[in-house]
Amino acid sequence: MKKPVPIAAVLVVVSCSFSILGMTAGPGAAQERATPGTATVQSGGGPLGADVFRIKEVDLGDQSWGQNLLRVSVENLSGEPQPFWLHVGGRYQNTGRPRGFGMGMEEVVVLEAHEERIVEHPYWIPPQVGELSYGVKFVLPTGSTPPWEQEPFLRETYTVTYETPNRRCNELTPLPQSLKYDWLEEYRDGARIRPFEVVSTEHFVFYVLPDSPAAKEIEAIRGRRERVMEEVCAFLEVSVDARINFFLFPDAASKRWCMGHQGDGLAFDATIAEIYSEDTRLDPAHELTHIAASLVGSPPALLNEGLAAYMQAGHEWNGEHVDRTAAELLSEGRLVSLAELLTRTEIGSRPDDGKVAYPQSASFVKFVIDTYGREQFLKLYGALRNGAEDNAARFEEVLGVELGTAEQEWREALEAV
To answer: Of 289, 313, 286, 301, which Cα lies nearest the Cα of 236?
Structure first.
């Protein structure tokens, strides 16, 4: 079905297919329609609604980040009022984030007998560079079974790729149906998230919101990030060729809404998202280290987060040297055993991680670098695997010392701090 969807050079529609009555029709396939642009589904044992509605045209709008408008030309073929459930949803596929990052908007529409109407349905595309797979589903809701568990009488699927830099961005303000969340309270009063301003440098594409602290200080931000990138890459002996998509948000709510992530900072693939406000300024080396160090290896959080915190200015965490913090934790009996930390696939979800696991891991990373050298540490970083059961053996194989022995030596060094 041909659709009047304007596509810019940065927005590439890779594929489009229909699924009707369990059959798929694509380019060159047999058509299940009477005429181009019309999806007429006849009765005959198919999903409920197949002989009730005719979907004539589906217009997706410009498919930009943020708010979009789906327009569907639909006709009720029956002699009675009929409802149908409309859903737009999907997720980004080719990302380093677990389960990707999705979207989903739905509503129930009622058409009177023999009514033909253009149904407008707002939907929202999360701002992320990469491949987005999503679809539009139509279901005739019946009984007590939720509509999302019923077979749709029409489904259209799409794959859209947003490239770097992406300048196609609409209003990012949450849609009304999303304002049920407590943390979006400020947007119930008319607050807006306006489209990004885009600033490109040699290594970065910055996405900042108009009039935000980041927008006002973008020249200083871009200069410092470029310098830190050079320092991090030199330490790790790597070169980051792809430009990094860097999203800077003025508050926690806008970052969480746009990126689907709680916390001050996030890094995956070639993307970083941070809060940049008057009260929150992250050390620029932390998330950049995650991006660059992914070229070295994918070790457990002990080394992954430990290195990122170690690379911060002055080896400080929350304004204090990581060794001093670790020494205080040792005296208080609050250090986590390294054997346990080595099994953790992430640091950040536990209530005390910010006060314990982060600075502790950074202090141990510093100990390994100071004791065995940077080259050996990088070998260790590349040898261990996040979630692997044999990481303790790998540790000993690279450094020639058991993890328990190294931990005891590190604790003894902390006693002298």
So the answer is: 289
- Judge whether 161 and 131 are in contact, CB under 8 Å: yes
Report pTM.
0.81
Cβ-based burial of 113 (10 A; exposed 0-12, middle 13-18, buried ≥19): exposed
State whether residue 96 is helix, strand or coil.
Answer: coil
Indicate if the alpha-carbon torsion angle 327, 332, 338, 344 is positive or negative. Answer: negative
Cα separation of the two ends of the chain: 70
Is 211 within 8 Å of 250 (Cβ atoms)? no
Which of 90, 250, 98 lies closest to 162, judged by CA?
Answer: 90
Task: Provide the 10 A C-beta neighbour count for residue 189.
Answer: 6
- Total Cβ atoms within 10 A of residue 349: 10
pLDDT in tens, 387-415: 999 999 999 999 999 999 999 999 999 99
Find residue 124's DSSP bridge partners: 67
Distance CA 212, CA 185 (A): 19
* CA-CA-CA-CA torsion sign (220, 226, 227, 231): positive
- What domains, with CATH codes, occur in the chain? 11-162 (2.60.40.10), 176-415 (1.10.390)
Are residues 304 and 290 in contact, defined by beta-carbon separation less than 8 angstroms? yes
Largest CA distance in the chain: 86
Tens-place pLDDT, residues 182-200:
889 888 888 999 999 999 9
In the block, tokens 């990094």 appear at 244
